[in-house]
Design goal:
Layout lengths: L55 H9 L3 H22 L6 H27 L8 H15 L12 H18 L12 H24 L9 H21 L5 H12 L28 H35 L5 E3 L1 E3 L1 H19 L5 H29 L4 H21 L6 H35 L2 E2 L2 E2 L1 H18 L6 H23 L9 H21 L8 H12 L3 H14 L5 H11 L4 H16 L23 H4 L3
Helix pairs in contact: 1-2, 1-3, 2-3, 3-5, 5-7, 6-7, 6-8, 8-9, 9-10, 9-11, 10-11, 10-12, 11-13, 12-13, 13-14, 13-15, 14-16, 16-17, 17-18, 17-19, 18-20, 19-20
């Protein structure tokens, strides 16, 4: 607004290049000179000829009809005329006519500015744009910038007003982009951001190719529009963020901010080069706002993974309730590991599309939930395994072992991203595999234990319990064919070790001895049964072959009738198994039933001598006899010593 002082009309009119000689004083003989002229603007006066002076109303009409060049010339003439009249009036109090004229010119000045800013505001929203009109607006702005500090000029910055008009035009452009509700379109935000990006590029292309040339370079037009888009979009995104944002929406928002905005699809578009500089391509959001979006997304992903894992457990339980046999794809197969790996792969791919180095954070969230899942899985399924019948229960246990092994292998490719946390989860997976394997092994032990105890009844070795044991081994062996390495080897080795130890322990805990009558037949049976066990585990590719000689040595001892022959066998036994004790050997000698106490004493002393030989120093890597407890003591003299 202009000042109402006596200098209100003072301008730099002399510096204007506009020809003002055709203009005359406005309404010199107007009978309503006491009324501001713009108050009569609504009266339909006819525009005067070029050679005539224009009234305030006529200038106003020119402004409203966007005949800005003529309106501006007339306004400049009237402003200079008012200045001359005020100077002629000197120190006298200005007449009401002059006061009203001054008010009218101030109103016209603001109307001119508003109209010009309207032209600027609409210039990027009108197709095609009236570039000639925009050129005139830019010229008038430059002319008025020369007079900004003069009395009578507006109390505003023309350049700032222009920038504000640009911002308003940009805001209008953004608001014109369709924004559906989530009820209308589940992908409402992704679609909106895509359309918004397209609108921004099209608008900046128009600025670069058309609007920019309408201005003097000092306007820095392209950068002004880019900066306006930065500000307007930042505010627009904050408003959107106040809506109900789901996981997919948070992802779309983050991806658009962190990647798409500066990509070739938007600010980095080749069509905006070379005007678009790298340093103005990134959306300058406040750190707090960007962190809010990220944190919300992380919390949402946490919920997503929790729901995925919960769904996996429910699926597995339903399959077990329905007694569906696990699919065999080389191994017993469960979709569990596939669903888990797919979940991380899917969201990792999305995170990588943001190009913001957020993979580590995503992996940490996933691994935290995976560790909780493994613990919950073990707790939930412990009872399920107990209630299920064989062999379906074993099939599921092996399928789940295979799944956990697959998950472990899958996590290895992410170790470089978060080594410590990956190792922690891998160990948890390993613990669950061992837990499942031990549950399977304990059932095998429980099932075979009664038959092992019945192997050597009285003076006879019954083949029926042994056949039951072999059958259990073969059943579990068949199941193990569908167990994944490397745990398969560990499980087979543990089963082999257990069977060998249990079989041999029966020779040392039996209350009966072979006796002379059935001795050869018993030795034959022992050797044959031990060979059958060896063959079974050989077929299972057991790596515990080192336990096989133990049975052979013991059967040789039981077979021998002379102490000297037994001592020879004993030398090989101690060499292979230096942890055999006097108690173990005494139990075997008792089982043999052929030697008296003195003979046994001599053989036991020979064992002591062998133990003292450094050649037979006990290996710390392989323990066998020391794992077999001996409770029965027949004769104190025979067990004293080592």
């Amino acid at each position: 607004m202009g000042n109402s002082s006596s200098n209100a009309g003072d301008t730099k009119g002399d510096s204007s290049n506009i020809d003002l000689t055709k203009f005359q004083k406005v309404h010199k003989n107007d009978n309503r000179e006491n009324e501001p002229l713009l108050l009569r603007a609504g009266e339909g006066n006819t525009c005067p000829a070029e050679s005539s002076s224009l009234s305030a109303m006529e200038i106003h009409d020119l402004i409203q009809s966007t005949r800005l060049e003529k309106a501006y010339r007339s306004f400049i003439f009237e402003r200079q005329e008012l200045k001359r009249q005020l100077e002629e009036n000197g120190s006298k109090t200005p007449s009401m006519h002059l006061k009203n004229k001054e008010k009218d010119l101030n109103l016209l000045y603001k109307a001119l500015r508003d109209k010009m800013m309207s032209v600027v505001r609409d210039s990027n929203n009108e197709q095609p744009c009236d570039t000639e009109l925009l050129v005139k607006v830019a010229q008038i702005i430059q002319e008025e910038e020369k007079r900004e500090k003069d009395p009578g000029s507006g109390e505003w910055s023309w350049r700032d007003s222009w920038k504000e008009a640009v911002r308003d035009g940009v805001k209008a452009k953004i608001q014109s982009v369709t924004l559906d509700t989530k009820e209308q379109n589940r992908a409402w935000l992704a679609v909106h951001l895509g359309q918004l990006g397209k609108a921004v590029v099209e608008d900046l292309e128009n600025v670069k190719n058309n609007l920019k040339k309408c201005y003097h370079p000092s306007f820095n037009v392209f950068n002004t529009y880019v900066d306006s888009y930065h500000q307007a979009i930042a505010q627009h995104l904050k408003e959107i963020y106040q809506k109900e944002i789901e996981t997919k929406d948070s992802y779309a928002l983050l991806k658009w901010i962190l990647n798409d905005y500066k990509s070739e699809e938007l600010m980095g578009s080749p069509t905006l080069q070379p005007d678009m500089c790298d340093n103005i391509m990134v959306l300058p959001l406040e750190d707090d706002f960007l962190n809010q979006i990220k944190e919300k997304y992380w919390q949402q992903l946490k919920e997503v993974f929790m729901n995925i894992f919960r769904g996996i457990i429910n699926t597995e339980q339903n399959n077990m309730i329905e007694k569906k046999e696990p699919e065999i794809l080389d191994w017993y197969h469960s979709e569990m590991h596939h669903d888990i790996c797919k979940a991380l792969d899917e969201y990792m791919t999305r995170i990588q599309e943001m190009n913001a180095n957020l993979e580590g954070k995503l992996l940490c969230i996933f691994l935290d939930e995976l560790q909780c899942f493994a613990e919950r899985f073990g707790n939930d399924f412990e009872q399920w395994y107990t209630d299920m019948s064989e062999p379906l229960c074993a099939q599921y246990q092996i399928a789940h072992i295979n799944s956990f092994i697959s998950i472990q292998e899958y996590l290895e490719k992410h170790r470089a991203t978060s080594a410590e946390q990956v190792e922690k989860v891998v160990q948890k997976m390993d613990a669950e595999v061992n837990k499942l394997g031990q549950t399977l092994m304990e059932k095998f032990k429980e099932k075979t234990e009664p038959n092992f105890k019945n192997l050597m009844r009285g003076r006879w070795i019954s083949d029926e319990p042994f056949r039951e044991i072999v059958n259990d081994i073969e059943v579990l062996s068949e199941l193990c064919q569908h167990m994944r390495p490397p745990y398969k080897q560990k499980f087979v080795d543990e089963m082999h070790y257990f069977v060998a130890k249990q079989y041999i322990s029966q020779m040392m805990t039996s209350r009966w001895s072979c006796g002379r009558r059935d001795h050869e037949r018993i030795v034959f049976t022992l050797r044959r049964q031990w060979g059958v066990l060896y063959e079974n585990f050989e077929n299972m590719s057991s790596s515990m072959n080192w336990v096989y000689p133990a049975g052979e040595h013991l059967v040789d001892i039981i077979e021998k009738k002379k102490s000297e022959d037994i001592k020879i066998v004993l030398q090989s036994l101690v060499k292979d198994y230096p942890d055999i004790s006097r108690k173990h050997l005494r139990a075997v000698l008792d089982f043999s039933g052929k030697l008296n106490c003195l003979q046994k004493w001599a053989i036991l002393n020979h064992l002591d001598n062998l133990h003292q030989n450094p050649v037979h120093a006990e290996s710390q890597n392989q323990k066998f006899f020391s794992e077999i407890p001996i409770k029965k003591i027949h004769c104190f003299c025979c067990v004293s010593g080592h």
